[in-house]
Structures are given as structure tokens and as C-alpha cells.
Amino acid sequence: MSLQIPFDNSFARLPAAFFSRQAPEPVRAPRLVAFNDDLARVMGISPGEAEEIARVFAGNAVPEGADPLAQLYAGHQFGHYNPQLGDGRAILLGEVVGTDGQRRDIQLKGSGRTPYSRAGDGRAWLGPVLREYVVSEAMHALGIPTTRALAAVETGETVLRERALPGAVLTRVAASHLRVGTFQVFAARGDLGSLKRLTDYAIERHYPGVEGPMGLLTAVRDAQVRLIASWMAVGFIHGVMNTDNCAISGETIDYGPCAFMDAYHPSTVYSSIDQFGRYAYSAQPDIAVWNLAQLATALIQQYEDKEAAVEEATAIVHATPAMLEAEWLARFRAKLGLTTAREGDGALIARLLQRMAEGQADFTNTFRALGSAGARDHFIDASAYDTWEADWRDRVEDEPDPTALIAATNPAFIPRNHRVEQMIAAAVAGDYAPFHRLNAVLARPFDDQPEAHDLRRPPTEQEVVQATFCGT
Ligand code: AMP
Ligand code: MG
């Protein structure tokens, strides 16, 4: 049986101003690296043979029903507005509605040049493709809204970065690829017709029933609040929270120089291009508000009474910090094994984090171990933990089962940055075993998997990854 994808495209029917039709550029020798059978099944895709999967997800064969195009968008990058970005190395093949009723985009990333490529080559190398595959699937297993990975294919070509590297194509699946930057491009051009059309489309696709641009802004805000709080709860640092990387759906999108923290410190930055810590771990809530303000600025262009619209949008955006704080508190209460809310909980959490920062405690392992014998060993000065634990014991006295809640909310496994880098180095040398092992273990992050305990270990001094590059 051959590969069949039940396409049902909606974005391709929007006006021509939204995209450029563009076929993917074939590659020399496609070879399938990974195919996500579980995801394919939910999407109603019948996979067929590996060779055909490789051809289709390398862009060498356009499957029946696809309507390939590159999407237009703009965005603020590190605070500076870029009036035209767009898919410079990605092609939207189309959409499918899965057996779960969910509509999803299928996008090839690294599939050749498009009208939006500027100076870029339209390609991706194997490293960032495998990184996005592993980390996005790990995020999904952690229960965090995210784009997903359907396939990874080697191209048999080299791409030139700092050196010649093996090329690859990632197939990314998303609730949609609408971004804050998709709204910005039409607002900045004063194309109110397209802006209105986009607003209606986004509402129908993601938030049916909400009313008008302000209803959309409210819904996106709520989704971003949930998203950012869930990142904070697992120690995830996105790395490039530019407005073109902020999805309207509320999914995590664009895994570039992202990483999970090892030792806890609020000002942790991984990306080598983020010199001033704009997108540091603890800055993420503020940046989410900033991005929402950009969405608000774009959306209000649609109102005739600007003053009233500004007032309403300001109120919606200004509510975000308090909502984030509440959502953050709820998540961290659960991480401490608490099912009830009490006055001093925020201070109790803050004291733990303070001691973790001072004690260079591993974020993931410390939370997983709370209340158990090994917890104190994660701190340089174990007694700093002991005094905190005494307070925590007083607080959990009436809790039904803090240990079970801690195990259910604090993962044992995250895609540690040094393991991801080691996996990439192995793959470049032709060994895909670490890639497959990471995927298998990270699919069950809350299960103790004794045979994989090496993947729980923080990096040794030699293993610490010095810089995570933008990864293009
Ligand atoms: P990103 O940093 O991946 O969010 O990308 C920012 C912008 O640069 C987007 O418009 C991308 O399509 C574009 N881009 C990134 N890498 C490449 C590349 N190798 N070739 C063409 N465009 C690229
Ligand atoms: Mg991007």
C-alpha cells in the first residue's frame, strides 16, 4: 500500500496576499531517519513504505492533495521589527483533520529556498532537525502544548554552516503556523482587509465562538499564560521568543537554541545570540506580555474608535502578569505535592528556589526528589535544604499523598542539553542509537526507568554545553 495523506486544506484558500505558492526543492538522496507512527495514525495517514515516506518528507514527491506554499509573516526579533520574514526554508504541504477531530498543518522545514529566503539557503542541517524532533516530542510527552515531529529525513547533501554538515528535512506538525507576526505584517502594511480575514480565520480555526479581535486577543492571552507557566514548571528556556515564534494556537513553536535548565538559576540563558538575556528563563513571563502587546497593537488597527479599542486591549494585556503569577503558583504548588492553596505557599516556593539557586541544585532532579532521602544531596550545602524541608513537612501534614503528586508532576526525564548534543554528534557520525533511545525514554518522562538512569544525570564539567547556537 502506498502513502496516503487525507489533505483538507484551508489556509491555501485564503487570498494570495497570505502566501506564495512554492513547491519543495528535491534533494539528492533522501533517507528516512525517523517516522512518528503514533502521530501519523492520529492524523489518519497511511504510511506505506519507508522509501516513499522518505521521498515525500524530503520534498522529492508532492503527495496527492497537497497544495505547497510558503507563508508570509513579519516579526519583532530581539525587539527589532523586521517587516518581512515569512517561511524562508519551510513549505506548508497542507492540512489534515485527524481521527481526533483536530486540524493540523504538515510543514516541511529545510525544504529549499522560497520567495522569503533572503540570503538563506533554504536548508537545515541534521543537528537542529534531530534536536527539534527529540525536544518537541519530549514536550508533548510532558503534557505541554507543542508542535510535533512527524518525520526526519537525511537529504544526502551537505549544507554549509560553520563547516560542511549533513543536510536534513524535518516534517513539523502544528495546530497551525499562525503567529503574532502573521498579524503584524498586515497591520504594518495597513492592509485591513487581510487583517480582518486573518482574524476571522484564526478565530474559526482555534477559538470558535469567541467574538471579534478583542475576543481573539483574550483567548491567545489565556493560551500563552498556560503555555509559559508550563515552560517555567519544567525549567524550559525557549531561547528566541520573537513575535514570529509566538504561535496564536498557544503551542510551543520553533525549537532553535532552546534547552532545559540543569542547575537552577533564574537568569539562565542558553542561546549564544541572546547576549543581553532578553529571553532568559525568568524573563519569559515578561516577554510573553510584550509579545501579546504586539498582537494587541496589530489587532486594534481594525477598530474605528481607536481610543476605546486601545483601552480594551490594554486591559486585556495588563491582566496577563497577575494571571501568569496565579498559574505559576498553581503549577509549583503541585510540584511541591500540594493540593490545597494557602497564604504562605508562594513564599515557601520562593525560599526553595532561592536555596536551589545558591546551592546550584539541579532543577529537575531536586523537584523529583523533594521529601525523599536523596533531595539534600543536590545542594552544595545540604543543610540549606534540611531547614526548608522542615517547613515543607509542616505544610504537607494534612495533604493526602504528596509523594504521589510529586512523582506525577515532576518529570524524571527531560531532554538534557548535553545528551541532545551527544546524540547529534553520534548521528553525524552515523550512529542513530542515541537518537532512538532518547525518544523512547522521553516518551515516558514520569516513569522511573532504572535502565536509563544515566539520562537523569546532570552534565559533568566536561559535558556542559558551552553555547547553543541558533541552529540554522
Ligand atoms: P527562525 O530563527 O528559525 O525563527 O527564522 C527566522 C527567519 O529566518 C524565518 O523567516 C526563517 O524562514 C528564516 N530562515 C532561517 N534559516 C533560514 C535558511 N537557512 N534559509 C532561508 N531562510 C531561513
Ligand atoms: Mg521562526
Secondary structure elements and pairings:
Layout: E1 19-21, E2 31-35, H1 37-42, H2 50-58, E3 69-71, E4 75-77, E5 80-82, E6 90-97, E7 103-109, E8 124-125, H3 126-141, E9 148-160, E10 164-174, H4 180-189, H5 192-206, H6 212-234, E11 236-237, E12 259-260, H7 284-299, H8 306-318, H9 320-335, H10 345-359, H11 363-369, H12 382-396, H13 402-409, H14 417-428, H15 433-442
Antiparallel strand pairs: 1-3, 2-9, 4-5, 6-7, 7-10, 8-10, 9-10, 11-12
Helix pairs in contact: 3-14, 3-15, 4-5, 4-7, 6-7, 6-8, 6-9, 7-8, 10-12, 14-15
The protein binds adenosine monophosphate and magnesium ion.
Residues 244-245, 254 line the site of magnesium ion.
Description of the structure:
The structure is a single chain. The chain is of the alpha+beta class. The chain is globular. The chain is built from 15 helices and twelve strands. Strands 2, 6, 7, 8, 9 and 10 form a six-stranded antiparallel β-sheet that branches. It has a two-stranded antiparallel ribbon with strand order 1-3. It binds adenosine monophosphate and magnesium ion. Adenosine monophosphate (AMP) binds at residues 85-89, 116-117, 120-123, 240, 244-245, 254, 256, 472.
